[in-house]
Amino acid sequence: MVSEKKKEEPIPVDNVISDQTGQFDLRFILWRHFCAQNNIPVEMLPSQLDGEQKEQWEELKNSRLRTPGQK
To answer: What whole-number distance in Å separates Cα of residue 71 and Cα of residue 67?
Structure first.
């Protein structure tokens, strides 16, 4: 019998840049990860992505980051 394994979703992290974290802020880490996976230069801004890439970035960002006030 094959058991179904639920893929565990990562817990969202705060979508706020603090003075203490700077370049190690989780948004920047997530952006660098996204760029590496999609062969996109890290210097590119999210606003410069094309339609499909922008949708992928927004989906990843929304699934992994939470906005202030969101629990």
So the answer is: 9
pLDDT, one tens digit per residue, over 17-51 is: 555 555 567 888 899 999 999 999 999 999 999 99
End-to-end CA distance of the chain: 37
Query: Would you kindly state where each structural domain of the chain is located, as residue ranges?
Result: 13-66
pTM value > 0.70: no
CA angle 62, 64, 67 (to 5 degrees): 60
